[in-house]
Amino acid sequence: MHTIHLQEKVVLVTGGARGIGRAIARACARNGADVAILDLDLEQAQRTAEDVALESGRKVQAFEADVADLVLVRAAVNAVLAEFGRIDVLVNNAGWDRFALFLETTPEFWEKVIQVNYKGVLNCCYTVLPHMVQRRSGAIVNIASDAGRGGSMGESIYAGAKGAVIAFSKTLAREHARDQIRVNVVSPGITSTELFRAMQDHRTGAKVMEAMARSVPLGRRPAEPEEIAPAVVFLASDAAGYITGQVLSVSGGLTMVD
Ligand SMILES: NC(=O)c1ccc[n+]([C@@H]2O[C@H](COP(=O)([O-])OP(=O)(O)OC[C@H]3O[C@@H](n4cnc5c(N)ncnc54)[C@H](O)[C@@H]3O)[C@@H](O)[C@H]2O)c1
Fold first, then answer.
1. Pocket test for ligand 1, best of 24, 44, 96, 185 (most atoms within 8 A of CB)
2. DSSP character for 40?
3. Which helix (H) or strand (E) holds 173?
4. Which CATH number fits domain 10-250: 3.40.50.970, 1.10.3720.10, 3.20.20.60, 3.40.50.720?
5. Mapping DSSP to helix (H, G, I), strand (E, B) and coil, where does residue 92 land?
6. 3-state DSSP call for residue 10?
7. In which element (H, E) is residue 247 found?
8. Which residue has its alpha carbon closest to ligand 1 atom 40?
9. pLDDT class for 140, splitting at 50, 70, 90?
10. Taking the chain, what is the end-to-end CA distance rounded to the nearest angstrom?
11. Mean pLDDT for the stretch of residues 28-33
């Protein structure tokens, strides 16, 4: 029987400089993993890497890349492989959104949301998967959103991109089960981060977010990032060795749809 830990695993977390990604990096290191943090914001990623290394005693390093840019992702992944030797777990966490009703959005906004939230996942999987296939071992955990399962007012493009992440993950899980590579999704509800705060810059966004927080069955509040991370650790660990193609909602019960 497997207990839940990540000892002797190398984990790559995108968007790990702050918010949910930072909590995931911390939880992975506390559970025994060495961690590579890949982020747009190299300075913040380096500060986080130093903090996490200090508290966990694990090897934790920061790498810079925009996940939306395949060339930059390739360069960063090569640097991670040169430094850590392998990648056992890929956590696609980097994401971006702003609150806007569909008719307030522009095609430029669609492009950015799709590039970061969907193409970013494709770029990272496309780059890391061949190494996992070669070793016939690996786990991918993609961070979607309950917006992508049930829809969410003011998040039309983002919800579509996250829905795409879910469908893509299930397909990848089918294609790579024979390679002993598992692909699962963690789907947060509302979570107290910079992204959540930025959604409240819009007048309607502030009201919608407040109403959503009030309707969370567990606690009538948003999650803390530390409440999302354990689900990622579990799905990344060998304890989840018989689980693939699944979506785990961590939303305090905000959504209970299938
Ligand atoms: N906060 C929520 O309420 C919530 C709810 C559901 C899902 N999520 C998802 O959780 C994930 C983390 O979100 P968060 O709330 O922690 O956001 P955040 O804005 O607090 O942190 C996001 C991190 O990703 C990095 N990042 C953004 N764009 C990037 C890019 N193109 N390339 C590389 N790094 C990039 C940022 O620099 C930052 O460090 C996202 O995928 C988000 O969609 C968040």
1. 96
2. S
3. helix 156-176
4. 3.40.50.720
5. strand
6. strand
7. strand 247-250
8. 95
9. very high
10. 29
11. 98
Q: What is the pLDDT of residues 123-138, one digit of tens each?
A: 999 999 999 999 999 9
Tokens encoding 236: 């990344």
Spatial distance between the Cα atoms of 160 and 117, rounded to a whole number of angstroms: 10
- Report the 10 Å Cβ neighbour count for 68: 21
Q: What is the mean pLDDT of the chain?
A: 97
Alpha carbon distance 46, 49 (integer Å): 5
User: d(Cα 242, Cα 180) in Å, to the nearest integer?
Assistant: 10
Q: Which contacts (CB < 8 Å, 24+ apart) does range 160-166 have?
A: 160/114, 161/113, 161/114, 161/117, 161/118, 162/117, 162/187, 164/118, 165/92, 165/117, 165/118, 165/121, 166/142, 166/247
Domain boundaries, the chain: 10-250
Q: Beta partners for 188?
A: 250
Ligand 1 residue neighbourhood (C-beta within 6 Å): 14-15, 17-21, 39-41, 66-68, 93-96, 116, 120, 143, 145, 188, 190-191, 193-196
DSSP state at residue 179: G
